[in-house]
Input
Amino acid sequence: MRILLIEDEIAIAGFISEGLAEEGFAVDVAHNGKEGLAMALDHLEEYDLLLLDWMLPGMSGIEICRNIRKQRPAFPIIFLTARDTVDDVVFGLETGANDYLRKPFAFEELLARIRVLLRSSAGEQTVFRHKDLELDIARHQVLKSGAPIELTQKEFALLELLLRNKGKVCRRSRIIEKVWDIHFDHDTAVIDVYINALRKKLDTAGQVSFVQTIRGVGYRVNDD
Output
């Protein structure tokens, strides 16, 4: 899952982005309104949710929200703001935000709101299955033959990407960008380490691995 955070307070942006990264999300950050809107509109199809401060330099969160709503009416947006009157809440929601969180807030509450909103997004699939494997994004849980399997955050994110694209080849460049949030040429050997870890935890002894290596290209989970 990839989140765009538009927040001008450096400390708050760092607190949120570090917390979300630990939970397995890829996070891009903008610190002013114009930069944030440009990032959103240029890459809107790549993002799953927007965390948006109301009062920003360059362009307000309200203006950004209105612009994004024209492009993707159902795109999940959560306002983060110190404005806390009932009128402010109503105005923010009527502008197009799906949810509204008052500053200061506990990270656990923000995380819960994000997961609820992602789970309820129109048409958003949150459970992925392959043979005896089941990955549930909302519960952040992986089951094999009904038994829970403990995965690290990166292992979970990698498995989610592979299952979301079942039957398709996930190129190494895309994996490193989506799972490790790296946007340039980089040593992708770390991917092999995590693929091997997934295989050890999830493969069935005596059977072909559920992850197929496409040599020189990437990896694929087959449909069958």
Notes: The radius of gyration is 19 Å.
